[in-house]
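Retry 2 of 3 after timeout on previous attempt. Resubmitting structure tokens to design endpoint.
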């Protein structure tokens, strides 16, 4: 059963109406719009973890933004009863506001009025939500943990533009915690692809490392322990730094002690994300020159967004 159709025939706002909407928005509202532009779709729970503390204020504010047509929503069909949370997507008015702030156009932002519909019926929407869960978990931990910062996060589309198609990671991240920092490429695995095809992706990452002269760890975020064990068995000996973990929200989620480098010693303990930079002492793990070297240079991913126009945050 497809998601309910989302009405697209909204009236075009004139300058006066747009000014009235702008007057009702807070800096946090603009951050919500920018994150929806950047991450395509976020659930109510994800937005709560990112910007609020309790469900009721979250739903109230999102409801206001929805009435202003700055965001739109859909609720996926669930085959076994119950109800899925609302999934939020940037609305047309929200895109127009971001374009005005960024001195660009809605088209250049990459927004289309059918965006919400296309996401709601896409068979890749579950992958996008899972990938955003990884991002939100890091950002949420950074909000509540001193000396922990999500320094950067680039989407699949951004990665493709930056690295010219040599590799197509699901995301690039830069995580800082307690004096340790690591850049990484993320492969969010849902189990829909054969293990052989997953392992074959590593050749592209090796080509990218050779082209850029920057060796960046590749992290596989897997849906089950069985899937992880089997993937590790399939991956051949490689000079690329690789680590695997089973998807979890326990013990700090992806930032916590869930990562197992490859190769690993018998009985080796799993490591925190920030510790992985020391997992391959025989390799010179590089760092993208675009990323800051210390926490004082860039405190958080939100600061990163604040320092740039919406368009620059979307395409660096």
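Retry 2 succeeded. Sequence:
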């Amino acid at each position: 059963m497809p998601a309910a159709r989302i009405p697209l025939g909204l009236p075009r706002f004139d300058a006066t109406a747009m000014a009235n909407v702008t007057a009702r928005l807070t800096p946090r509202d603009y951050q919500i719009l920018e994150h929806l532009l950047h991450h395509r779709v976020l659930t109510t729970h994800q937005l709560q973890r990112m910007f609020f503390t309790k469900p009721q204020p979250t739903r109230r504010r999102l409801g206001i933004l929805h009435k202003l047509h700055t965001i739109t929503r859909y609720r996926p069909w669930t085959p076994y009863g119950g109800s899925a949370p609302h999934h939020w997507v940037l609305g047309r008015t929200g895109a127009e506001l971001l374009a005005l702030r960024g001195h660009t156009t809605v088209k250049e932002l990459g927004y289309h009025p059918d965006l919400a519909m296309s996401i709601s019926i896409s068979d890749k929407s579950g992958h996008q939500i899972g990938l955003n869960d990884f991002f939100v978990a890091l950002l949420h931990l950074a909000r509540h943990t001193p000396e922990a910062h999500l320094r950067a996060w680039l989407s699949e589309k951004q990665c493709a533009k930056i690295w010219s198609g040599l590799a197509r990671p699901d995301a690039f991240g830069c995580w800082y915690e307690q004096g340790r920092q690591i850049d990484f490429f993320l492969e969010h695995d849902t189990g829909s692809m054969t293990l052989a095809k997953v392992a074959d992706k590593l050749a592209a990452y090796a080509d990218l490392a050779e082209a850029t002269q920057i060796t960046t760890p590749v992290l596989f975020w897997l849906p089950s322990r069985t899937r992880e064990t089997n993937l590790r068995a399939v991956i051949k000996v490689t000079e690329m730094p690789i680590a695997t973990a089973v998807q979890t929200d326990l013990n700090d989620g992806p930032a916590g002690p869930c990562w197992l480098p490859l190769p690993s010693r018998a009985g080796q303990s799993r490591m925190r994300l920030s510790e992985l930079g020391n997992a391959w002492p025989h390799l010179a793990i590089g760092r993208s020159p675009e990323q800051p070297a210390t926490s004082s240079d860039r405190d958080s991913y939100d600061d990163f967004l604040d320092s740039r126009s919406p368009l620059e945050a979307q395409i660096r």
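Attempt log closed. Residues 1-11, 291-301, 304-316 have pLDDT under 50 and may be disordered.
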